[in-house]
Amino acid sequence: MLRITGIWSSALAAALSFFALSARAQTYTAIDLGTLRAGSARVHGVNELGQAVGGSGHPHGAETHAFFWDKKGGMRDLGTLPGGDYSAAFDINNSGVVVGVSNTATNLRAFSWNMTQGLHDLGMLPGSDSSSAFSINNQGQIAGMSGSHAVLWTSGAIQDLGTLGGATSEAHAVNNLGAGMTQGWLWERQRGAAESGHSSGPVQPACSRWPMVLAAFIVRLLPSTILARWWEC
After folding, report:
1. Which of 80, 88, 129, 133 could form a disulfide with 84 if both were Cys (CB 3.0 to 4.6 A apart)?
2. Helix, strand, coil shares of the chain as percentages rounded to 5?
């Protein structure tokens, strides 16, 4: 069970109240983005220009491909990396750069995509057998994982973000200052890994997906630092 304590419960209540008041003053129109095939589509990311990305395939996920959607061109199939038959896009920045994952003939690989260059394999850490890209900021830094470690790609170079002593870590969000939020901890270039989800010990999976979702949301709003001990399980 998720329990948000102390200052964070008050902050969360204030934030929810703000968004509730904002929602009452606005109206929205639902837009059907369509599908790539006679099946389904799921949106994973949207930028400030209203461009959306995700994955679409047959029912139950068969032949799922990453897509890019905008109002002018509709849904575009981003394809896969060579040898692959599956891909999904997870985020897009305000420059229209998309990140996600595609399989190949041998493994899963993180990719980036833009209008001019198409799909680009982001590579992996030495000795690892897979990679995935989950988030990109407006400076082009990409957060994800390679093998069993969280990573950050900057200008094409991959950096191992390490763990808090455990075996695995994943990076699921990066803000425009390059601070990355993973499942249970915050990483900043100046400090390295700093635990935010548990008071001591190695990185552990959250008892629910909601702490990770909340963390990924807040890291985009705060400029640099997040206080420790957000939740207890």
Report:
1. 80
2. 15, 40, 45
Residue type, 85: D
Which residue is listed with tokens 């008050």?
Answer: 10
Q: Are 103 and 80 in contact (CB under 8 A)?
A: yes
Asked whether the CA dihedral 84, 147, 139, 229 is positive or negative, the reply is positive
Domains assigned to the chain: 34-232 (2.120.10.30)
pTM flag (> 0.85): no
Q: In this model, does residue 62 exceed pLDDT 50?
A: yes
Q: What is the tens place of the pLDDT at every residue in 103-133? A: 999 999 999 999 999 999 999 999 999 999 9
Residue 141 near residue 178 (C-beta atoms within 8 A) = yes
Question: Structure tokens of 11?
Answer: 């902050």
Question: From CA 206, how far away is CA 211, in angstroms rounded?
Answer: 7
Between CA 105 and CA 186 the distance in angstroms is: 34
Tell me, what amino acid is at 40? Answer: S
Give the C-alpha separation, 167 to 165, whole Å: 7
